[in-house]
Amino acid sequence: MAATCISCGSPAKFREINSTTRLFCNAECQLISHFSENFDLTNSGDNIRFLETVKYGDNAALQALLADKNVQIAFGNKLLVSKALQLAIEEDNVEKVETLLSDARITSPPAESFEYAVIENNMDMVELFFQHRHQYPEEFYFRLFLYLIQNGTTDMTMFFLESGRFDPSANENEALRIAVERSAKPIIAALLQDARVDPTVNRNEVLRMAIDNDRQDIVKMLLQSNRVKASAFDNNALQLAVANENAAMVVMLLPYISSTSDESYDYAIRVAGLTRNAKIKLLLEDYKAKKTLGLKRRKK
Length: 300
Fold this sequence. Notes:
It contains 17 helices and 2 strands. The chain is mainly alpha-helical. The radius of gyration is 30 Å and the shape is elongated.
């Protein structure tokens, strides 16, 4: 028996990749089958025509279809709208995305469509989603922001940060922690300028992270922001640099140490002795001697 198209029953001309049973006579039948299987729709003819126009037609054809009062498209079906937007995004067709988002019947564009535009790194399309009257939950914007810090361009990441749609200090400054892990300097600088972001959370965690990773450039940024105090939390940052036997980091931190007369500074000296790192021990002792001498002179 001759193989037949599973969509229309005509003689089949090809088999879908990675399938032994999905046979079709042409690409249109394959598309119709896919849409029929994935969307439980009324008026399936108009809805399939809508998706076909998004995929194969130009923007003028799409605009004409949407303006046709005789065409009944199930805009209330989020799967249908999501698929239409996905097709336009995959095509990298900003005009079609704009046409779809500007249709008043699409009141809340599916979040996965917005996310897909972000993953595709399409700034023009992302801006269109931001311009839409619908706003997503704050947590959604924040999650995309975290993704962008790790995978996106600086421009799009900054665009999200400047949008004001979320609190960048959420989850105990998770954004700043990720930015420091990724050494994303423009993002770190921008976050440090935001009063809501506290870079000293969890006992100077981000400073200690940068020290542990031997990122002197990031440590310098944090210290020069004047929002991170190297001597805070019992000099734990200095103690970490000493324990890591990182002389260059110790030299960078010392000018920001406010006091050498407390127990925590002396503990750093003892740690240097335990590691038998004479150079670091001498650095700490010399700096303490200079600070002590300076205090004596001021008292006179």
